[in-house]
Structure formats: structure tokens, C-alpha cells
């Protein structure tokens, strides 16, 4: 047992500590029982057992002796922790790892610490994030896929159970100030409401302060933003395009650090910083777009960019000198065009897309740097362990082969032609009028030197990104490079070793599932720069794509359908019939040469190891469904409710909204119109980029269906409503079964039809995730900017709004058929 400072401990408190049989030191300060006494705790059970009262109680206070329980603090010398996770940024994106996008903050951090060239992840955002904050594999945490596509199996239900405490909870109970800024894609949608329950929110994971968005992405100009459990709207009242969450989040983190330092200057912090950049929508400020555009980084196209990045990587030493650049994908299933095959219009559009993405990257790097500057200003940088993960997966290929001004169009399988993008969206690309994503070929280039992209867990382009670790007080090999194989599950064990805190055996009396990663702290010393990795085996799986790393060998399934391919005629083979490849990563850094034919026995051996790992970590049953997985039944914020009633004003979060995709629905508004008339929003879901709204415009009832900002279908009464009580109904009959079909809507007033229209298509699979359902007003963005501006508060009286969804139109048989093919909405 390590030394225990007995001279400062009362016998009773010491006995409680020793009963844990901990191998960790217990450090105390101050006089036992005094208000200023502190102690670290053994940490094997959290929270630590309450100490017995060590004073004396007599009949009167004068005869009695006071005794205060010591305040819990971390072990002496424990560092602060800044954990940074950049979104959708491939290995070849930042200048720190050979990219052309200026990343001075990360460059400076790397010069003062270590670059890790073989850091791996789960190839998709929330699965990686669940593994990162827990030290356990993503299927162990229930995050085999994002929550919006979850299924009712332990590895896929997106529920973090109490026996899997996160690093937030561990450090919180050991005396750290814990906070979370930015993206939280680990709260299931059905509990992502402002009334909870909150056990699956950051606060339930042990993060005492939260400022961010509990969804996979959000509009940076008008975000779905929470402070702790309360929705906030700090951009309201400012000119559109002036306020941006990327800057506001850094401001909030800096303010939090200053308040924490002023209140508890000696209290270490864990600050988890997860900005929206560079996930779509790509929303940098105009200042950064102008800066990057002036550099003309992308004028020579994606093929030349790839060659430039590859040369830079060799010069920096982040890939070996003998590494080979994987070939440009010309055949199925990727099949991307060379730059020289493009028209002048295509090149013009695609350069703009890359400029805006790069500006968002540089902007994110800069604002994160401001947070680090504040830590330095406080004199705490020397003893702050910064772990910066430059990507939660490979670069995103969710923008289609031609990019998109509206990422929800891409998510729903809708390609927007280049000429339409140029004519309608080019000048505003990246501004509040768009939610853009770049073309896939840029994505492939930003994953240089590897093959494939985000979502593709079987290839390094999907699951390998760079990382930088800095801790000036401990890491003396400044600017060093580490090539050991590691995974995001190794971050928590590294933090625990650095802080001297054990992984708890129980939390709240619940026995804990073991940590599955290993510490990377051994790599901090220069003498260990080239020692073998301690992480010897790691499985990968995402949407049926899978791989296994074992002792330098890497076996993986081939990609059968590119993530961006929505061709409905493509047959997807059974998930167990995928072909496998084999790579020797000890001699082949980039996964260049498939050697399965040379080593068939080794391939069989690794396939068997994959099955062992999959059984151990909840990977089965495998599922390769695409769109249709989003339509599978899962818990609702209002289980069993078949008719929803609302009284204005109120906002309903996505997880509690009634369903309306691919089905009939009826909206009924019982309202009173005053003598002066009325207008304003009755009920709306979504906004500028897709959704619908029922409202009065100059007294006339209107229903608008916004089809991905490409079409707006409108039903409007010819007459304004006279004063008095009225019932306004919109009834929609869906032309199912199937996805994205059209339907017929009827708008009626007091039982009389006033407008009828049939529309050819509807949104098939993914509704907008960062807008409320609003009753009596409209938040964030409106469904038709030409009709009204938010909040468009209703000036009459709403007695009641009801929404009655019909049953889903897809039968089980049709769902099964859809799972065999790529679903695509009607043209």
C-alpha cells in the first residue's frame, strides 16, 4: 500500500478509508474535523463512504466538539484535463498531420507535446463518443450505431447503463469540476427533452455543467442549444449571421473556466470540449471564409490536393517514408471522378464547398485555441493534460458526389444538381441560408493517405484520425511522434493513470463493468517512443462493415455499397457473405496491398478472433440496413399516445414530437379570433430546411410543407377568418406504402374545405433534428421566410391544438424488402 498520511486523520475516518483496501494513496490536508480539511478517496467505490462523525455530542453545544467531514479532492498533483474532440475531420485535414488547412492551435500543441499517428475510433460520431467518455467499446456502451438508428439489442439500444460510469462521474466523485461543451450525441432522442428524464444527459453522466446541443448536429447560426437542461436562444435580437455558436461556445467555456478559477482556484477541472466543427452544416463566419478563399488551397482540385497532403505527411514524419498512397477510387463501389473530368461550373462550385469546409476547420481550431489561451492565462497550462482527438471518425461522405446546400436533402437521398446549387445557393454557401456539405471526392482527399470515409469501419479512412497529447509538466519529448496502435477506449485509462485515480469497482452501489481500454501514458516518455503498443487487439463494426486488428495484422470486409450511394437498384448481399481482405500493417502502413491470397490461414485466424471479440462486446446481431433502420420502432417520449394535445405557447423537443413521416396525419386548431383579426403561428415542426407549419397570414389560414428547401407546397384559404371561434383543420392522406411518397392534403375551416392539393413527394427518412415543434409561435427558423419572420407569435387565442398521426405505412414485409435494397425517395 502507498503511504497514508495518518497524522492528519481521525481514527474513524481512517478506518473507513482503510476498509476499502485500496492500493492508491489517500492524501489529506488541514486539521481533521476542521472546515478546511480535505482528503482524496480510495476511489474503488463512488461516491466514497461518508465518514463517521469524529467530534463529540453532549447535551449542550458548549460541552460538544464540532467535526466537519473533509472536502473530497483529487490526489495531490493531479492535472487538469482538457479533452477536445473535433467532429468529422479526417487524418489528412489539419496541417498538423500534413493537411493544407492552417491549424496553428493544434500545431502549437503538437510542438509542445506528442502527435499520435495511429489513433482509432468507431467510424461514426456517437459510437466513438460513447467509447471516449467511458473507456469501453461502443457496443459495450449500447452505441453500435447512432441513437436515431438504434435497435432493441444491448449493443445497439443507445442506453448507457448505470454499471458503465463515465469519466465525468469518476472524476466528479474524486473532487474535479466537470463540464461538457458542445455536441452531445449520446442522449437518446426520446429523453432529449427539456423535462427529462436526465439520467442520459451529461449531468447523468457526471458532467456538472453542460452548454451544447443534445443532437448529432445543429445550425451554428440558430442552434438547438441548452445550458444544462434549459433551452436558450442567445442569438435572438442580433442580426442574422453575426452570432455563431463556434465563437459563443468558446466564450462560454472561457467564462466557465474563469468562474471556476475565481470560486475554487485549487480545484482541478475536467473540461470536455466537443465543437460542432467540422460536422455539417459547415457554418464558419464570413471572416474565415474570406481568409481561406484568399489562400486558393483547392484550385488545383482533389487529385492534386491528395498528392500534396501525402508529400506533406512524409515530410512531417506522420507516415513512414515507404508508405504508399492508396489509389483514387475509379471503380465500383466508390467510383469518383478525377478533377480533370469536371466542367468549369462543377469546379467553381466544388472549390467553394472546400473553401467553406476549410474555413470551418480553421475557425474551429482558432476558437478552441482561445480556450487553451485562457488556461495558460490562469497559469494552469503546465499541469493540464490536453488530449485533442482530431476526428471522431474519418471525414464525412454524407454530402453526395456533388455536395449539397442542405444536408437534410442528402440524408434523405436527394441529390441537388450542380446548376441549381450554383444558381440558388452559391453566393450564400455556409451562411444562415444554407446547411451545406461538400462533395465526397473532397472527403476522400481529406482522408489521405487512406481509403474510404466516415461510416466505413472496415478501412483506415473511416476509423483512423490523428491525435495530439500535451502535458508540459510530464511530457518532455516535445514535438515527438508516436506510432503505436491505440483506440479512443484508451483515453479514459490514460486520464485515470495521469490523475492517480482508480477505475471504480462500484458506483452508487452498482458493480461496474470493467474498463476495456489500456493507458497510453507509457508513450509519454522518450525512451518508449518506439516500444510496441500495449493495445494488441481491437475489433471494428459499423452498419455491417467490420474489421479486426490483432498483433499488427488487419482483416476487414470489403465495402459493398458506398455510404453516399442511393441507387435503389443495388442489391446488398447478406451481411455474413461480405468478402474479406487481409493487410500486414507492420509493413503496409496505408492498407495498400491485400495479402489474403498469400496468407489464407492468417485470414481465417483473424476472422475467428473477430467472432470472439464480437461475442465479448455485444456486437451481434449484425445489421447492414440503411435508411430503413431509421424507421424501425424505438422508444418514444410519449409511448402509447395516439393523439397529442397542446395549449400555447409551448415547444416540444424532437424526442417527444408526434410522428408524421410516411403516414397520414391530421392537425386541428381550435382558436378564437379577436375583433381586430389575428395572425401568427398555430403549430409548426421544422423550419427553413424542412418541415411544415399551420398558421394565419393576414387572417388567412395557411399550411406550408417545406420539402427540403427545394419545394414549398402551400394550402391557403382565400378568406380571412372573421372574429369569433373557429376550427382549422389540415388533413393529409399519404400515398403509401413506401418511403417519401406524396399525398393529398385538405385545409378546412369550420368543416368547410378551403384548399386541396396533391403533392408528389414528402421527406422519406430523416426529419430535421435541431428544431422544436412550436405551438403559438416559431423558434429558430421559419418554414417560409417569404411569409413571416420568427417568432411570428399568434395574436389570437389558441384553445387547443391536436395532432393525430396515422399508423406507419410500411409493413414488416416491406421493411424486410427495403433492407435488401437501398431505399430512395420518389424523384
From TrEMBL:
GO MF, one term, reads:
arylsulfatase activity
Question: Sorted alphabetically, which InterPro entries does this protein's record hold?
Answer: Alkaline_phosphatase_core_sf (IPR017850), Sulfatase (IPR050738), Sulfatase_N (IPR000917)
Keyword Signal found: yes
Region ranges (Disordered): 29-54, 804-827
- Name the keywords, alphabetized: Hydrolase, Signal
Polar residues bias (residue ranges): 29-42
**Pfam families per the UniProt record, alphabetical:** Sulfatase
- Which residues belong to the signal peptide in this entry? 1-25
Domain Sulfatase N-terminal residue range list: 79-501
User: Which CDD domains does the record cross-reference, listed alphabetically?
Assistant: PAS_like (cd16025)
Query: What is this enzyme's class at the first EC digit?
Result: hydrolase
EC code? 3.1.6.1
What does the similarity note say? Belongs to the sulfatase family.
**What is the official name of this protein in its record?**
Arylsulfatase
Q: Which organism is it from?
A: Adhaeretor mobilis
- Write the lineage as a comma-separated list: Bacteria, Pseudomonadati, Planctomycetota, Planctomycetia, Pirellulales
Amino acid at each position: 500500500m502507498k503511504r497514508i498520511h495518518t497524522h492528519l486523520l481521525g481514527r474513524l475516518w481512517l478506518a473507513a478509508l482503510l476498509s476499502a483496501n485500496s492500493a492508491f494513496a489517500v492524501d489529506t490536508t488541514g486539521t481533521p474535523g476542521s472546515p478546511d480539511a480535505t482528503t482524496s478517496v480510495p476511489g474503488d467505490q463512488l461516491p466514497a463512504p461518508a465518514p463517521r462523525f469524529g467530534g463529540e455530542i453532549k447535551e449542550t453545544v458548549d460541552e460538544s466538539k464540532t467535526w466537519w467531514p473533509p472536502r473530497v479532492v483529487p490526489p495531490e498533483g493531479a492535472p487538469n484535463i482538457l479533452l477536445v474532440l473535433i467532429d468529422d475531420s479526417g487524418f489528412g485535414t489539419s496541417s498538423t498531420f500534413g493537411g493544407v488547412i492552417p491549424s496553428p492551435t493544434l500545431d502549437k500543441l503538437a510542438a509542445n507535446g506528442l502527435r499520435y499517428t495511429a489513433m482509432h475510433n468507431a467510424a461514426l460520431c456517437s459510437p466513438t463518443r460513447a467509447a471516449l467518455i467511458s473507456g469501453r467499446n461502443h457496443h459495450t456502451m449500447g452505441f453500435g450505431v447512432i441513437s436515431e438508428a438504434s435497435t432493441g439489442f444491448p449493443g445497439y439500444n443507445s442506453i448507457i447503463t448505470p454499471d458503465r460510469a463515465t469519466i465525468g462521474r469518476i472524476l466528479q466523485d474524486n473532487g474535479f469540476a466537470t463540464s461538457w461543451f458542445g455536441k452531445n450525441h449520446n442522449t437518446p432522442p426520446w429523453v432529449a427533452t427539456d423535462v427529462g428524464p436526465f439520467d442520459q444527459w451529461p449531468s447523468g453522466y457526471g458532467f456538472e455543467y453542460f452548454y451544447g446541443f443534445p443532437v448529432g448536429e445543429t445550425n451554428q447560426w440558430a442552434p438547438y442549444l441548452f445550458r444544462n437542461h434549459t433551452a436558450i436562444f442567445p442569438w435572438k435580437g442580433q442580426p442574422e449571421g453575426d452570432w455563431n455558436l463556434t465563437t459563443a461556445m468558446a466564450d462560454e467555456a472561457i467564462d466557465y473556466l474563469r468562474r471556476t478559477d475565481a470560486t475554487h482556484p485549487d480545484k482541478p477541472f475536467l473540461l470536455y470540449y466537443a465543437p460542432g466543427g467540422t460536422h455539417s452544416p459547415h457554418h464558419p463566419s464570413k471572416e474565415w471564409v474570406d481568409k481561406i478563399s484568399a489562400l486558393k488551397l483547392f484550385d488545383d482540385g482533389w487529385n492534386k490536393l491528395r498528392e500534396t497532403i501525402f508529400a506533406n505527411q512524409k515530410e512531417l514524419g506522420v507516415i513512414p517514408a515507404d508508405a504508399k498512397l492508396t489509389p483514387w477510387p475509379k471503380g465500383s463501389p466508390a467510383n469518383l471522378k478525377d478533377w480533370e473530368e469536371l466542367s468549369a461550373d462543377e469546379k467553381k462550385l466544388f472549390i467553394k464547398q472546400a473553401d467553406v469546409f476549410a474555413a470551418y476547420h480553421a475557425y474551429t481550431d482558432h476558437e478552441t485555441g482561445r480556450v487553451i489561451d485562457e488556461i495558460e492565462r490562469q497559469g494552469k497550462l503546465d499541469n493540464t493534460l490536453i488530449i485533442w482527438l482530431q476526428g471522431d471518425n474519418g471525414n464525412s461522405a454524407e454530402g453526395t458526389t456533388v455536395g449539397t446546400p442542405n444536408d437534410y436533402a442528402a440524408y434523405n437521398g436527394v441529390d441537388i444538381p450542380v446548376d441549381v446549387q450554383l444558381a440558388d445557393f452559391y453566393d450564400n454557401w455556409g451562411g444562415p441560408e444554407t446547411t451545406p456539405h461538400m462533395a465526397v471526392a473532397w472527403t476522400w482527399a481529406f482522408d489521405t493517405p487512406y481509403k474510404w470515409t466516415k461510416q466505413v469501419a472496415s478501412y483506415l479512412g473511416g476509423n483512423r484520425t490523428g491525435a495530439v497529447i500535451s502535458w508540459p509538466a510530464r511530457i518532455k519529448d516535445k514535438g515527438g511522434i508516436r506510432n503505436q496502435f491505440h483506440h479512443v477506449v484508451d483515453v479514459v485509462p490514460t486520464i485515470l493513470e495521469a490523475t492517480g485515480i482508480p477505475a471504480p469497482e462500484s458506483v452508487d452501489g452498482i458493480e461496474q463493468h470493467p474498463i476495456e481500454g489500456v493507458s497510453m501514458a507509457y508513450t509519454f516518455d522518450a525512451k518508449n517512443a518506439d516500444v510496441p503498443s500495449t493495445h494488441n487487439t481491437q475489433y471494428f463494426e459499423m452498419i455491417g462493415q467490420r474489421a479486426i486488428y490483432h498483433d499488427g495484422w488487419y482483416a476487414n470486409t470489403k465495402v459493398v455499397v458506398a455510404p453516399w450511394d442511393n441507387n435503389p437498384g443495388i442489391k446488398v448481399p447478406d451481411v455474413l457473405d461480405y468478402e474479406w481482405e487481409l493487410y500486414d500493417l507492420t509493413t503496409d502502413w496505408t492498407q495498400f496491398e491485400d495479402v489474403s491470397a498469400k496468407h489464407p490461414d492468417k485470414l481465417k485466424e483473424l476472422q475467428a478472433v473477430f467472432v470472439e471479440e464480437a461475442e465479448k462486446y455485444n456486437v451481434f446481431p449484425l445489421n447492414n440496413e440503411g435508411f430503413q433502420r431509421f424507421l424501425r420502432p424505438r422508444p418514444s417520449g410519449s409511448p402509447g399516445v395516439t393523439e397529442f394535445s397542446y395549449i400555447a405557447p409551448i415547444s416540444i423537443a424532437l424526442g417527444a414530437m408526434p410522428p408524421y413521416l410516411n403516414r397520414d396525419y391530421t392537425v386541428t386548431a381550435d382558436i378564437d379570433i379577436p375583433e381586430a383579426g389575428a395572425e401568427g403561428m398555430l403549430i409548426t415542426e421544422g423550419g427553413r430546411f424542412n418541415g411544415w407549419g399551420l398558421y394565419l397570414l393576414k387572417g388567412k389560414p395557411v399550411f406550408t410543407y417545406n420539402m427540403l428547401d427545394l419545394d414549398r407546397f402551400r394550402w391557403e384559404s382565400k378568406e380571412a377568418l372573421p372574429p369569433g371561434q373557429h376550427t382549422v383543420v389540415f388533413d393529409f392522406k399519404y400515398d403509401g406504402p413506401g418511403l417519401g411518397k406524396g399525398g393529398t392534403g385538405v385545409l378546412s375551416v369550420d368543416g368547410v374545405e378551403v384548399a386541396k392539393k396533391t403533392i408528389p413527394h414528402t421527406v422519406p427518412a430523416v426529419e430535421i433534428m435541431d428544431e422544436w415543434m412550436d405551438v403559438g409561435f416559431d423558434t429558430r427558423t421559419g418554414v417560409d421566410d417569404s411569409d413571416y419572420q420568427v417568432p411570428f407569435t399568434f395574436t389570437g387565442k389558441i384553445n387547443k391544438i391536436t395532432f393525430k398521426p396515422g399508423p406507419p405505412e410500411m409493413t414488416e414485409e416491406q421493411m424486410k424488402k427495403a433492407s435488401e435494397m437501398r431505399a430512395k425517395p420518389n424523384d
